Amino acid sequence: MQEYIELVRNGQRLPAIAYYRKHLVPFAQTHEEAILKAAGLLAFKSDTEVERYKDMFAKESWQRLASSFVLAHHTLYNVPTAPLLHIALSAGLSALKTPSCYSNVLRPPINFYSDISASLCPVCSPELNVLARNVPYAQHVRNIVDDPVALPNGRVYSQANLEAWGHKQGVTPGKVRDPLTQEEWDSSALRKVYVM
C-alpha cells in the first residue's frame, strides 16, 4: 500500500494503476474498504485537504510503517519492546528504591560509612536516576536500623550511628545533627521509634 501511495504522490499514475491491479486487487475480498480508498487516491494530489486522503499522503505514514514492522518482529520472536538491560536494571533498582531517593532535600556528597566523598545509592546516581523514576518503591518489611530514633523533622536514623557520626563531625555533646539537612537539635528532641 505504501509503495502504491508513493507512486501516486510522485505523479506516476499509469505505474500506480498497474501496481494497484497487480498487488492490491487480490486483497479486495479481505480488505475491501482499504482497497476502495486506495483507488480513490488516484483522483487527488499529495497536497489535498480532503481528510480521508490527506492522512494517506502524510509523511508520518513511513514512521507508522516502521513501527508496525518492529512490533511485528518483536511479537513474532517474543522480544520485549524495552531493552533487556533496562528490564534487569529496573528489577534491581526497585529493590533499592526508597522514598528518600526522591526527596526535595539536597544531599551533600558525603558517604556516612567512610571518608569517601561519593554516594552509595545507585538509585540516586545521575546515570540510573531517570531509569529508576518509574519503578515501584521497595517493600522493606523488616527493620534494618538498630535502635531507631526520629528527629523533629521526621527523619529516622539509628541512634548509635547518629551519635557516632555526630562525634566524628564535631557536633557538640548533647546535640544531634541531621546528616542530610545539617539541622541541629538537643538530644532530648529525639523520639524513640517502634517498628512493627
Name the features.
single chain, 196 residues, mainly alpha, 3 domains, three-stranded antiparallel sheet, 5 strands, 7% strand, rod-shaped
SSE blueprint and pairings:
Blueprint: H1 2-9, H2 13-24, H3 32-40, H4 51-57, H5 60-76, H6 84-96, H7 126-132, E1 148-150, E2 156-158, H8 159-169, E3 175-177, E4 184-186, E5 191-192
Antiparallel strand pairs: 1-2, 1-5, 3-4
Could you please describe the fold and organization of this structure?
The protein has 196 residues and is mainly α. The protein folds into three domains: 75 residues, no CATH class; 49 residues, no CATH class; 45 residues, no CATH class. Helix content is 43%, strand content 7%. It contains eight helices and five strands; from the N terminus they run αααααααββαβββ. A three-stranded antiparallel sheet has the order 2-1-5. It has a two-stranded antiparallel ribbon with strand order 3-4. A hairpin with a 6-residue loop joins β3 and β4. α1 runs antiparallel to α2. The protein is rod-shaped, with a radius of gyration of 32 Å.
Could you give the order of the helices and strands? Answer: HHHHHHHEEHEEE
Largest sheet: spatial strand order: 2-1-5
- Tally of DSSP helical segments: 8
Distance between the termini: 64 Å
* Number of strand segments: 5
Shape: rod-shaped
Fraction of residues in helix: 40-55%
List unreliable stretches of 5+ residues. 105-118
Radius of gyration: 32 Å
* Secondary-structure-derived class: mainly alpha
Q: Describe the sheet with the most strands.
A: 3 strands, antiparallel
Count of discrete domains: 3
